[in-house]
Design brief:
Number of strands: 11
Largest sheet: 5 strands, antiparallel
Number of helices: 11
Distance between the termini: 43 Å
Structural class: alpha+beta
Shape: globular
Strand content: 5-15%
Helix content: 40-55%
Length: 348
């Protein structure tokens, strides 16, 4: 039995859940893992487990993944619930070891119910409504939750560039024909500087930071923004309001049609009429492109370092999003860098 399993068992025992039947759920690209707990009474809960790992961190580099998981989860959950949004109740938490038992929102993930025939547009409309509620609310510098206070750090130029740099770090390890020398890497950072500067300057709202169809759950009996069950938000940061929108509408794991993307954006601007649409969409294209480069780097790392070849299937979709965004005004320098350093046959 591993040391981590001993910690899990001790935590469940202390929470009065030693007799619960545990059923692991499929994982994703992060190191978080989930188990559904079924108690002797038949009630279900979720065990969340964030073990230490070498992941890119949007927050204070001195924080462990457990600290970000425990403090971030409870504090962000409390803030979301205070706005009338649907975040799970925290049943038990072990902050130092990154373990929590939370309310079970069920299996109706947006991606799953759409695959089963649910209509996409109402779900995406509700997801946009939840973001509009979040963006309309004042964004505190410090959130308070059951595990203690948690500073809502800004997704600033350093953090944004660190994410983009995963591309130049890991793509060559997956595709040996790619080689980025020091001059190319320096230029890479230069061409992204205007985008990261705009991202930091516009960082004004709390961003979930992983807002997509596999982290949103349809809640029956609720309407509008409250019908969207929110999970996996413990890495929330203060960011540009476009961040969660492009994460939702340019999803790495499923196709969202251009028509649905346009309808969802129109709905957002209707709900937030004070927004300067032109400036917003310029930031949307730039930050979406940066995020897609970041995700390509993460997928390359998962394949090359972690022996998870299934993530190769998602890379063509990310390349397609990135290629499309690089046609937007203001991204000419990034597009030119790609043309010089990444052959077209790689970018598909």
């Amino acid at each position: 039995m591993s040391d981590r399993e001993i910690l899990r068992l001790d935590f469940l025992r202390s929470a009065g859940l030693a007799e619960a039947v545990r059923a692991p759920l499929p994982g994703d690209a992060s190191t978080r893992r989930y188990e559904r707990l079924t108690t002797p009474s038949g009630a279900t809960l979720m065990l969340m487990d964030q073990a230490p790992a070498a992941e890119s961190q949007p927050c204070d580099p001195s924080w462990t993944p457990e600290q970000r998981h425990a403090h971030g989860w409870t504090a962000v959950a409390a803030h979301l619930k205070s706005l009338g949004l649907s975040a799970p109740e925290i049943i038990a938490v072990d902050a130092p070891n990154g373990l929590a038992v939370i309310e079970d929102f069920g299996d109706a993930l947006f991606a799953k119910v759409i695959n089963e025939g649910a209509e996409e547009a109402p779900l995406y409309r509700a997801a946009v409504e939840a973001l509009a509620v979040l963006h309309a609310a004042p964004t505190p510098d410090v959130l308070t939750g059951a595990a203690g206070d948690w500073p809502l750090l800004t997704y600033d130029q350093t953090a944004l560039q660190g994410g983009a740099d995963l591309f130049v770090e890991w793509l060559p390890k997956l595709i040996p024909s790619l080689a980025f020398n020091d001059a190319a890497i320096a230029e890479w950072r230069d061409v992204w500087a205007p985008i990261t500067a705009a991202g930091e300057a516009g960082a004004a709202v709390m961003a979930h930071r992983d807002y997509h169809a596999e982290n949103l759950i349809r809640l029956d009996g609720q309407t509008g923004a409250a019908s969207v069950g929110l999970i996996d938000f413990q890495d929330a940061v203060k960011a540009h309001p476009s961040w969660d929108l492009h994460s939702l509408l340019q999803d790495a794991r499923r196709d969202v049609s251009p028509e649905l993307e346009a309808l969802a954006l129109d709905h957002y601007f209707t709900l937030r009429p004070e927004t300067d649409r032109e400036a917003f969409m310029a930031a949307y294209a730039g930050l979406a492109a940066l995020n897609e480069a970041r995700i390509l780097g993460i997928f390359a790392r998962l394949i090359a370092r972690d022996a998870k070849p299934r993530y190769a299937a998602f890379m063509p979709r990310m390349w397609a999003h990135l290629n499309a965004n690089l046609k937007a005004p203001g991204l000419e320098a990034v597009a030119a860098w790609m043309d010089r350093h990444v052959p077209e046959d790689v970018r598909r």
